[in-house]
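FIELD: query
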Amino acid sequence: MAAMKQASSLFIFGTGSLAKLAYIYANEAHANRGGENGTSLRVEGFVVDQSAMQATSQSGEKLFCDLPVFSWDEFTKAHSANQARLFVAIGYKSMRSRADVFGRVRKAGYAMANIIAPASYVAKDCVLGANNIVMPGAVLEPGTKIGDNNVFWSNTTICHDTVIGDHCFFASNTTVGGEACIGNRNFFGFTSTVLHHRQIGDDNLIAAQALITKDLSSGGHYIGAPANKTKDIDPTKGVSVE
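FIELD: result
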């Protein structure tokens, strides 16, 4: 029996700046190397929640990047899970929201694509989950293990044999040393650095230019070089970045 052909239509969940970049890099991957794992993924539209769709409709426009915008309900009725794949492009304003939307899409049965910019480097033995975006100049070194729904912004470096959990956001020029272990829903600001072998829990906000020299538990806001905890993160809300 012939293998089932993977869906080639890609829809991006979101209409913000991250969604726009995902659209650009997905198109570059399509043009240069046929998309993820050689599968041609063509971006055909965007998806938003109903509340965002109502705001869009009031403006008289239902386009983003010159492509149609669907509400989540419209999308699920028109495109089955074997017809389309999704990339969730929800930004860092609420790390919990990023995780919630990802969970909703997965529960609905849709496969989620990784978007890997041609100018990035992902080692051949890197274990990569679903719905990750690796932007130009980012490096995932050999032996790395990456979970789901992570953002690796330009020039981020994840050094060898490091393990990354789910739903993390690495801003430009973040460096994570070798054999580190990072949990879930962590935000790393511009040019932050994690030394090798460090262990970081969940729901931490690492400020720009912070230097992590020791293991961190969960739920803290860290600033400085070396970084110190300045306050706790509200466990009912998680990390949010304005």
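FIELD: remark
Residues 119-226 form a domain with the UDP N-Acetylglucosamine Acyltransferase; domain 1 fold (CATH 2.160.10.10).
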